[in-house]
Amino acid sequence: MKVVKTVQEFRDQRKNLSNPLGFVPTMGFLHEGHLSLVRAAHRECRSVAVSIFVNPTQFGPNEDFEAYPRDMDADLEKLEGEQVDIVLTPDKDDLYPAGFQTWVEVESLTQPLEGIVRPGHFRGVTTVVAKFFNIVQPDRAYFGQKDAQQAAVLRRMAADLNFPLEVITCPTLREPDGLAMSSRNTYLNPEQRKAAAVLYRSLNEARLAFEKGEKNANSLRQLVKNIIAGEPLARLDYVSCADLVTLQELDKIERQALLSMAVFIGKTRLIDNVILG
Ligand code: PAF
């Protein structure tokens, strides 16, 4: 496994990577969820590249950029175990040189849900991922369904900017109690960690209700709210039942819908979602 630290070094190596090349962009502190993306890339591609970069431009001023967990040695060991061909670990000045002022912005898909509470977040994500697409030139790029809006936004960006690649979304990996795997789960103390299972429990209850015939989006949102309210350590940030493609809120579920949420457990903000239909 090659580890390269600069964009130039990656470019020098690109011709040695067999096509199709699968790419998994990450912010490190890798868990099984990330590794499942790497495995999917391996199944579908002849070589696999991973980037590790905690992207400052996608964090708001009061968010956890400084505190975001990092462990480069452990990450590289895990990727070596997955037989990744190349890992790019650029530093901030390489990706955002002095005088940087060019941004990639997807319009309406970034407005609802996470866009309301995290202004500027998706602009940071789309800008850095567009840069990685230019540098890595992958044939397929892999993202997790846990960040459903991010995946939708990046698919839109790739289509709109004619990137010659496929954006692939892989299923969310969960702990045995249903909690979606996330690097931010490490912020939770044992009591909070237990309480965090309420996210998936509430989504799952709503999905069961949907499957039994409840098509009223508000009833499903309310069901989720009630379950979250029953967990004293949890505070609901939002619950949404939206069209899977446009992310616009629904009254009645007639096509596939995305039931998604953000919940604070203590100071840690967790997101999760399920697809209905
Ligand atoms: O999902 C993430 O970890 C990040 O948003 C990404 C896609 C690596 C961009 O920094």
Summarize this structure as a short list of keywords or feature phrases:
2 domains, 10 helices, 277 residues, Pantoate--beta-alanine Ligase, Chain: A,domain 2, 6-stranded parallel β-sheet, alpha/beta, Rossmann fold, 3-stranded antiparallel β-sheet, globular
Question: How would you characterize the overall build of this protein?
Answer:
- There is one protein chain.
- The strands form 2 sheets. A 6-stranded parallel β-sheet has the order 1-4-3-2-5-6, sandwiched between helices. Strands 7-8-9 form a 3-stranded antiparallel β-sheet.
- The protein starts with a strand and ends with a strand.
- The protein is globular.
- Helices cover 36% and strands 20% of the residues.
- It folds into 2 domains: 2-170, HUPs (Rossmann fold), CATH 3.40.50; 183-276, Pantoate--beta-alanine Ligase, Chain: A,domain 2, CATH 3.30.1300.
- α6 packs across α7 and α9 packs antiparallel against α10.
- α7 (148-160) links the parallel β5 and β6.
- The model has no long low-confidence stretch (mean pLDDT 98).
- The chain has 277 residues and is α/β, with parallel strands linked by helices.
- The chain has helices at residues 7-14, 32-44, 72-81, 92-95, 114-117, 121-136, 148-160, 190-195, 198-211, 217-229; strands at residues 2-4, 21-26, 47-52, 86-88, 140-144, 166-170, 234-243, 257-265, 268-276.
- The site of pantoate has 10 residues, from β2 and α6.
